[in-house]
Protein 1
Amino acid sequence: MVSKRGIGRSGLLMAVALMVAMCVVAFLFKPERPLTGNLGICLPSPNLWDIDPLASWIINLVLLGGIAAGGFFLNRTFNFIRSTEPVLPAMFLILVGSCPWITYNLSASSIICAVNILALSVMFNTYKSPNATQEMFTVATLLSVGSMFQYAFIPLIVPYVVGAIVMKAFRIKECLAMIMGLVAPYWVGIGLGLIRLDWFTMPEFTNLFSDFTQASERYVLMVGVGLAIFIGSLLALNNSIKLYAGNSRVNAMNMCITLIGGVSILCIVVDFSNMMAYLATMFFTVAVQVANLCALWNIKREWLVVFIPGVIYTVLFALAVLT
């Protein structure tokens, strides 16, 4: 049984089982119109990689599990959520598992979210650091290399710059280090002949009303995404009240995550045909807000906070698969 106070290990295992079940169904009943197109700046995006479908699905499943575990251990290391309950990984697994477009094969969405976990682990070490040039160079390099394969990495530069300012670790030398980190991968790639200039392409942005999927699929997708955006935005404003009055370091770390979520939401709206690239990251930031709600506001029955969205998103998943 799940404990009355928290979701405990049993609650996490139930979330894992639900997510795996949805991933299996997503693989067996793939979306009729998957994400297509070359969305990298100069190299093929993950959806164009020549990988066996089963291997691609397994790699993606392991990667999503790694993201959930990474989020849990990131919190255990930096304590940006004042609780050891596994609400964050459980909520993330339920949200991301409910979207068959993310889970049926290896996608840029999973890769971008994993890179964000790595970048945040680096960024959180910069709080009031007298010299954060190495960390800023590392974060910029991760985003730059990622942008070669998927241009959705480019907008993430903004929240990391602002996040470094919030962490009080962004000065002229850190700015120069970040510029070098952004330029270096392209400079090396072109210099060594690994990238040709005629491979470079400009991204094509499309608005929210683009014909990305069939009408019925689009409605279910938009309901799920819209609900997550609404809940995440509401909780971010709600949690900021407690966070602002608390520890400044914890507040700064949560602000970094909120900024990433805000940029992801904005990109989903203005770049709708490529929205899947931002979606897993947005789901992760929503999961952080849900976990903060339980920790900051002393929710007595945390399992309900995970169980109710679990039921809702399972229904939405079923509708997305069956329609």
Protein 2
Amino acid sequence: MLWARRPEIAAAVRESRQNPDYLPGVLLPDNLGATDDPHEAVAGAEFVILAVPSQSLRDNLRTVVSSLSPGVVLVSLMKGVELGTTKRMSEVICEVADVPAAQVAVVSGPNLAREIAAGQPAATVVACTDGAAAARLQAACLTGYFRPYTNADVVGCELGGAVKNVIALATGMAEGMGFGDNTKASLITRGLAETARLGAAFGADPLTFSGLAGLGDLVATCTSPLSRNRTFGEMLGRGATLEELLARKQQTAEGVKSCRSILDLARKHDVDMPITEQVVAVVHEGQTPADMLRAFMRRETRSE
């Protein structure tokens, strides 16, 4: 059962088996229902999938907490860190829904929505501190084209998913300025190093960042034209302003808001994240993309 904020979207899913605004031309499964009533959507569900913009999670989840079934597993698809609190999405879920960490799972990987909706092969990570819950969720979303792997490292999967959006903004800016594959590969690789440093500060498993929720998600998001964050960065690199892009009311580029909270989180724990710092300077402080790359290249040399 899918919850849509707008009644016309819910009606289109039910009647035409399509979501005309977000996945035009893609035929949706016959067993997918849709409603504009969030309480109806979650009633009796074993798994509730949370796929709203990360900065709106708290308010949206508060709306349906009273209708959640006992023991429900709350599944986060969100890739961000909450502004102000610097909490990861699983932490926000535990707080708002008043559930233990074992009832919260995270799904993260190279999972561009349009390709999955078209039935193209993809793999992902299902992370939960409760191995049995992770296995149940794994079984629920396994198909002939979608292959989930379980993992207990919720922290690493969440941080990998959040930071990759920021690195994709930087990589998109480089693309928009006309730079080639060396530049983009350098940003992706050093971006992975930033992500791993932040993860280490929170006790994440280093192997997570070489897996699907780390490197896999990072590569897909930084290189695909289907990636909203990469595309947003590319338009910034071509000279568009933040105000112009936000006025277009396109789908959410999570990195635009979360880059600031991720940098706040890093600074709280003395983690060096130079690419994230420069993306914040471009997106929120008026620095140009060209200045961003110059600042990154002029940093003091050091051992890799």
